[in-house]
Amino acid sequence: MQEAAKKFNFTSSIYNLANLGHSFLIAQSPDDLDIKAKTIIQHIVDADILIIGVPTWNAGYPGRFKHLFDLIAPDALIGKPIILSATGGSERHTLMIDYQLRPLLNYYRTIPVSTSIYATSNDEIEGYTTSFLKERIQRAIEELEKLVPYST
Predict the structure, then answer these.
(1) Contacts for 152 with CB less than 8 Å, ≥ 6 apart
(2) Which pTM was predicted?
(3) Contact 61, 96 (CB under 8 A)
């Protein structure tokens, strides 16, 4: 994310779903959210670009992640450029991005870049990111650059 923020001269924010608090967990509609959760979701909706990263859980994204999108209006993210990323315990789950995450974001009519980023613990060795992962990150940023007209 830091690479994209630097490339496009954007400020960046990281939101962990745990930061949304208790109201998020029990909300059945956006009206059920407390002000903190509403503010975070509004920041997500208002962002110029999104870099979405999720852990792979039982070959899919977590239910809490899907719940976030259940609370966002289907037309709120139309045309938003996105980089999709996920982490997992093994390379076996790499296709989760294309078979689950990408279709969800297609429903919202976002514009995910073609290159997704999937990382396992093997992609970082002694604090250094592997060259393969660095290449995928760079390619995703280059694809994003074509979608963001005011990039530097």
Answers:
(1) 7, 8, 9
(2) 0.88
(3) yes
